Amino acid sequence: MKKFVLILLMVLLGQQSVNAQKTLKVWVVRHAEKLTDNPKERDPELSPIGLARAEALKKYLGGQQIDSIFSTNYKRTKSTGFPLADKIGINIKTYTPDGQKALVKQLLANASGKKILIIGHSNTVLEIVEAFGGVKPIKELIEESDYDYIFALTIKGDKVSVKVDHYGALHHSKE
């Protein structure tokens, strides 16, 4: 019996070691274009261009087998992820903008081997990239034009690589 318990313990510890080495893949985007006709509106819907960009995000990530989508609790962020969530049949999980570091810590501890989409804002997206241990690939996101960036992070152990791409209608020339 002692031999069986010892073997079981070794197998379980070995499995933990294997799981710890699995790659976490995270895509981080800013919400798509929002309606701007009422400057007093604090939680606007997506504009028609933003709705098209949300569809483009679905197309861009549709073959990636995303496990979870995280969004702040605003119409524009949730609506950016909804077409993809609907296509793959999952619910969008919400986080608070000031809770992004806690979200990252939770994902690093518990999401090894998963594929995650995080939707944020112009002032949080690059902070999320840095919270994962990545280097900011661009200086900043400009408020009214930078909706087409998508940051792909590959995290394995303490190694983080960050790739920049664009999706949907381009605001930028390819770097």
What does this structure look like?
With 175 residues, the protein is an alpha/beta fold. The protein has a single domain (23-166), classed as Phosphoglycerate mutase-like (Rossmann fold, 3-Layer(aba) Sandwich), CATH 3.40.50. The chain contains five helices and six strands. The chain has helices spanning 2-20, 48-61, 75-88, 100-110, 125-131, and strands at residues 24-30, 68-71, 92-94, 115-120, 149-156, 159-166. A six-stranded mixed beta sheet has the order 3-2-4-1-5-6, with helices on both faces. A hairpin with a 2-residue loop joins β5 (149-156) and β6 (159-166). α2 (48-61) runs parallel beside α3. It is globular and about 50 Å long. 31% of the residues are buried. Residues 15-19 have low confidence and may be disordered.
Q: What's the arrangement of secondary structure elements?
A:
Layout: H1 2-20, E1 24-30, H2 48-61, E2 68-71, H3 75-88, E3 92-94, H4 100-110, E4 115-120, H5 125-131, E5 149-156, E6 159-166
Helix pairs in contact: 2-3
